[in-house]
Every structure is written in C-alpha cells, then in structure tokens.
C-alpha cells in the first residue's frame, strides 16, 4: 500500500530542506502532499516561490503516514503560530504515527507539547528559548526517538530524508534510493 505524507509549508520555509525531503520520498514511492497555511504560493526563506498541492484546511481530516516540517525562518515560527499545524501534530502523535522536523522546526514539536520524553536535535539554538522540561536535546545530525525524527539543518537534509525513507519504506528501499543518487 502506498504511503502518504504531509509537508506543511509556511512563508519563510527552508527550500533546500523541503525539496530534498520531498524529492527523496517521491523517489522511494511515497506520495507527498505539500499544504500551504493559506491559499496561493508560498515564499521560501531564500525567495524561491512554491505552489503547494493544497491548503492545510483541505487536508485537516486526512490520515498521513508521516507529517514532516521543514525548517527555515520565519517559516518555523509561522508553523508554530498556526493552530491547524499544532492540532495536526498532536493528532498524529496521539495515534503514534511518524513525525519529522528539521532545522528550526523541532521547536514546533516542543511548542505543541509532543517532544516531552523524547530525544531531539535541531539547528543550534533553535529550541533554547522554549521550555525543555522532559525534552533531551542532543547534538547529532539525525535523531529517531519513538515516533519522532529530527535533524539539524540544510547540511543534514539528505541524511534526514533517507532516514524518513527507511522509516516508511524499509532499509532495502532506502539503499536503492541512496545507490541511485550516487550514480
């Protein structure tokens, strides 16, 4: 059965992370749905304009195998301020389903209250101003803790995306995708 993931996109998202994650998941046979917080194009942190598949409100009641948040600023702050994003993350977490966040986006997980009793990583300093009671922040490129996968930033996006591929499709598919990338 084909897996489906949701990637919410907010103005100011990190395009390298979003495109890398989306590209590798599609190569692995996963359906990727990008959803803007509102209708229309979304402008990334470096000015790239992306047209999402749909809006978040349109997919609020769908079930996803993974919800993944790209980082970037002010993208992560915009995701954190959106009640639909917070509600979707809490529902996903309550169902024990996979959640991913990279760069500054792990702070959205902390703000949603779903990072408690988890090990996470993030872009250096991105979560320092939040209440980290019962959250363990580690200095690793990618951290997989229970149902949450986090990563540090653009430089770790490939490793993060391959970890998500393996979590969704298995080690054999990850190896196939990774080998094809190397040529």
Number of domains: 1
Q: Order of strands side by side in the largest beta sheet?
A: 5-2-1-6-7-11-10
CATH fold-level assignment = Rossmann fold
Cα Rg:
15 Å
SSE pattern, N- to C-terminal: EHEEEEHEHHEHEEEEHH
Q: Class by helix and strand content? A: alpha/beta
CATH class value: Alpha Beta
Write structural notes for this entry.
- Keywords: Hydrolase, Protease.
- This is Putative intracellular protease/amidase.
- GO terms for molecular function: peptidase activity.
- It comes from Gynuella sunshinyii YC6258.
- Residues 3-166 form the DJ-1/PfpI domain.
- By secondary structure, the protein is of the alpha/beta class.
- It has one domain: Class I glutamine amidotransferase (GATase) domain (Rossmann fold), CATH 3.40.50.880.
- It is built from seven helices and eleven strands.
- It has helices at 15-27, 56-59, 75-80, 83-94, 106-111, 157-169, 171-182; strands at 4-9, 31-36, 42-43, 49-50, 54-55, 66-69, 98-102, 118-120, 135-137, 142-145, 148-151.
- The strands form three sheets. A seven-stranded mixed beta sheet has the order 5-2-1-6-7-11-10, sandwiched between helices. Strands 3-4 form a two-stranded antiparallel ribbon. A two-stranded parallel sheet has the order 8-9.
- A hairpin with a 2-residue loop joins β10 and β11.
- α1 (15-27) runs parallel beside α6 (157-169) and α6 (157-169) runs antiparallel to α7 (171-182).
- The longest helix has 13 residues, at 15-27.
- The radius of gyration is 15 Å and the shape is globular.
- The relative contact order is 0.18.
